[in-house]
Structure formats: C-alpha cells, structure tokens
Amino acid sequence: MLIKNVDHIGIAVKSIREILPFYTEVLNLTLEHIEEVESEKVSIAFLSIGQMKIELLEPTSNESAIAKFIDKRGEGIHHIAFGVESIDERIHQLKTEGIRMIHDHAKKGAGGKNIAFLHPKSTGNVLIELCEKEKGVKSL
User: Fold this and answer.
1) Does residue 130 sit in helix, strand or coil?
2) Bridge partner list, 136
3) Rounded distance between C-alpha atoms, residue 139 and residue 82, angstroms
4) What per-residue confidence (pLDDT) applies to 122?
5) Which one, out of 65, 92, 131, 132, has a CA that is 20 to 30 A from the CA of 84?
6) Is the model's pTM score more than 0.70?
C-alpha cells in the first residue's frame, strides 16, 4: 500500500473557540478554514503546519463520535490521517490482508476528501484514516 504522506492529525476538543488561540498565537499556526460536517456532527478547524494539517474536531452534538471519544478518553489526539491514491483499491487491499475497516467504502469527508477509517483493533489501538483528495479539487 502506498502512503503518500501524513495528511493531517485530528485532535478532539471541547471548544475550537477556546483552544484556537493556543494554536494560532502560541504555536503560530495559520488557521485556514473552519467548516461543519453535519453528517458527522462535528465542526473542524484546519490549521496548516508545513505540508500537513492539524484538524481540531469539536462535537456539535452529544451523539457525535467525537463527543463520545471526549467523554471516554478526554480531549486529545483522535486520529492520524494518511494520504493515499485510489482509496477504494487501498480499502480492498487492506480487507484482503485481514485489516478490519470501519468504512468498507470511501465516503465524503471534510475538505472534499474521500475518506475511510481503519478499525483501531487492527492497528494497535490507533485510529487511522485514509484520505484521498479528489482530482481537480483544491486542498484546504
């Protein structure tokens, strides 16, 4: 499987507004964009750091996976995302190698990317996301 890069690191937070000054003023990262992904019940702030991003993930509902993560584990690193090409082929390859997937097919994620998550039980308890930028879509 060809991993092109670390695309981003997702960090679960209770409040983007409260933590954002740490990232923008103390760490001097550039806030690129904030968007809401209604299907995931989350708001996401994208911060650039070199060739990758930090995603601050704030739940917009107590029913979101991020809210449940924070309730169980507290705020902190939620996932690491790797950039890939041909995401559906990568998913098929992983499944044939016995890797358990949360998503059997890519779905639309933040920033217009196609995404899929590997189940932490197959990855040493690390939530890993695969993401593929659509051709012709400008990356955030």
Assistant:
1) strand
2) none
3) 14
4) 95
5) 65
6) yes
